[in-house]
Design a protein that fits this description.
Length: about 240
């Protein structure tokens, strides 16, 4: 892996020398897609590391936003657990009032209110080796059926994030066009799965639900799940990784 890391650092130096480069599109993930194009990265395979066995994470410099580590759909008693959560605990979409959505951040430190009636909190059960989503109404626990197994999370973590390249970039606009300047690259090595669980316990890693609906087209009104993301802030990377 040392050879692959050196190769990435070499290619990144070339990208850095380019200075400001035009974004490939106006989408939310354009900062990462633009870098991947510059590196000559092949088509995305979300289940494996991005580049030469190394996972790439791009981040706007000075931003305090979260970085997604990976997505993991929860399990439950029902086959389509995400749809159950949407139907039972969702709230009206901003545009299609007759459709329900569920979007919000959940952690293991304190209950987070999402929508009008329900609050959510994570609970780690080391005996059952599961992370549960606990749902409350008026401080009373009403649902504890949604979960992620340790086995699933450990497999995803170790397969995709053993080596992480964290890249900072600046952003600017020239007229209607967006540009990025990639400024720094830092390499990290995953500590272990225990550190992952401890980071969740301490609220450093959160889970973000983005269960929406299609607002137009043939799928209008149907569920549109953008993924259930395990996320961390830059300042907390050291709780899960050590810098190489």
């Amino acid at each position: 892996m040392k050879k692959e890391m050196q190769q990435l650092q070499k290619e990144f130096k070339k990208v850095k020398k380019l200075g400001w480069v035009k974004s490939v599109n106006e989408g939310k993930g354009s900062i990462g897609l633009t870098l991947e194009k510059l590196l000559g990265k092949e088509k995305e395979n979300f289940e494996f590391p991005d580049y030469l066995g190394i996972e790439l994470k791009t981040h706007k410099k000075y931003s305090k936003s979260y970085t997604t580590l990976f997505n993991a759909t929860p399990d439950g008693r029902y086959l389509f657990e995400i749809k159950r959560l949407q139907q039972m605990y969702g709230y009206p979409d901003r545009i299609l009032k007759y459709c329900k959505v569920l979007k919000g951040e959940v952690n293991a430190i304190e209950k987070q209110k999402i929508g009008l009636w329900y609050s959510y909190k994570l609970e780690i059960d080391y005996l059952e080796e599961k992370i549960y989503l606990c749902i409350y109404r008026n401080s009373q626990l009403i649902d504890k059926e949604t979960f992620w197994t340790f086995r699933l999370l450990k497999e995803k973590l170790e397969r995709k994030l053993t080596i992480l390249a964290y890249i900072d970039a600046k952003e600017k606009r020239v007229g209607t066009e967006k540009y990025f300047q990639y400024t720094s690259l830092k390499l990290y090595h995953l500590r272990n799965f225990s550190c992952f669980l401890k980071s969740i316990e301490k609220g450093k890693i959160t889970i973000c639900f983005t269960i929406g609906v299609f607002r137009t087209g043939s799928k209008k009104g149907k569920i549109h799940d953008h993924g259930t993301a395990f996320r961390i802030k830059k300042r907390d990377l050291k709780s899960l990784f050590y810098q190489i």
